[in-house]
Amino acid sequence: MTPTIGVFDSGFGGLTVLRALIERLPRAHFAFLGDTARLPYGSKSRRTIARYAAESAQFLVREQGAEFLVIACNTASALALDAIQDAVPVPVLGVIEPGAIAARQASATGDVLVIATEATVQSHAYAAACRAQGLRAIEKACPLLVPLVEEGWTDHPVTAEVIDIYLGELRAEAAAQGLKPDMLVLGCTHYPLLRPLIERAVRPGVKVIDSAESAAQAAVELCNGRLGGRLGERVAPAAIGATAETEVRCFATDSVEKFERLGSRFLGRPVGKVELIDLGG
Amino acid sequence: MTPTIGVFDSGFGGLTVLRALIERLPRAHFAFLGDTARLPYGSKSRRTIARYAAESAQFLVREQGAEFLVIACNTASALALDAIQDAVPVPVLGVIEPGAIAARQASATGDVLVIATEATVQSHAYAAACRAQGLRAIEKACPLLVPLVEEGWTDHPVTAEVIDIYLGELRAEAAAQGLKPDMLVLGCTHYPLLRPLIERAVRPGVKVIDSAESAAQAAVELCNGRLGGRLGERVAPAAIGATAETEVRCFATDSVEKFERLGSRFLGRPVGKVELIDLGG
After folding, report:
1. Which of A29, A88, A118, B213 has its CA 20 to 30 Å from the CA of residue B194?
2. Confidence (pTM)
């Protein structure tokens, strides 16, 4: 039997994580849930986020038979990973620890910059995960980047200017603390769409780490171990379109039209029909 | 007995409407509810918005004794005014019709530009309200403006540039349809904080109409009629700080800290303690 992997986000930004998973696990089945009726989690309290995320995880496990969950949402990973693990009987992987591990593997100076939503930054989850890897991290909230991506301005001079302002402030803060960062972690699943602009804005020698990619790689390792190697080898991205085996079902709690319209940018292929569900919120 | 006026918004942008109400009705009591656990309404469906707004209105009437409701949220006014009127036994005033009436009173050409959130624009509620006043309206969604206000960039070159881009696109659309607009209606309660930048960006001869101001003026007329003239005359804005009589209680469904921190910019004075309530969402 082909295993089902559940992927959860507050919206559809987590489709960048799903995209990275499909590239690596083309023979798995995927159920993706975007809790779009209650987004953005980024501006809500820990208590509220934990309740919403636990309900969403239970839907993927109980209703969709997910044997493994990837929390493709930095805010939920930061604030609700424990609550989700308590709520479901399957392994649960967040996006934050894999990002920190990837930074540790690539960093020479041990100093890391992190950009994320306000709630993720306020949780200091990346700073804690980096510290656990022996890294020093400076985090910065960049609340305009998600709306700029959703406006479709992913290659727009205004977006480049906003990125310059945010990164300039972050560099100044790092310098003030005597850090010499050589890594920039993208701590939000919307940010991979801005990667070309961000690559242009970072100083030479600073490497951009996409925690969506890092989490997908960690999921492969965990899945292949836990699920008995049923999921297959990584395929080259060029082969994605040809993996007719990959089954992806997408669910949302609201605004399926917007999900269908914008989601393909994140997934890198059409998301198809999105099914509306009601989690009672 | 002093009447209580309930003011409702999905977030705290509606504090610009409350501010305009306090200026005009200094002897009233006010109960303001921001449904911050479930914002932004702007990206949600009509069905969901109607349910959230009705629950919020019932809280203000049943728990706070509001005798009159002002829906200080363009999205809820556009999509849920009927649902709210059905849900509570008191008069309910939205922000859209007053904005359209103010535009009609001031316009010479009969052509009007409207900027608002995506959900408000998709509802075409302003176009319909303007048509009912004999005006032709062109609406444009400006989804970056709310995040720019919440980032505090209300006097920032990036914000000025974004406004220029949006208004340029809107003017081009109006010209393509042969319209000669002389009014620009601010169809979102966050936009009054951008009024100085917007005033600088409009063409000479175009007047900016703030629907928060228009709604407050309409509320005064309705209240003084319906509530027997118990609310008093308009006071000059300079006297606001001195109206010790004005009682304002603020409630939110989440993130009271953010509400307290950002709310004063919208209200024009400290919002004080914000009480957390649970509407079960």
Report:
1. A118
2. 0.88
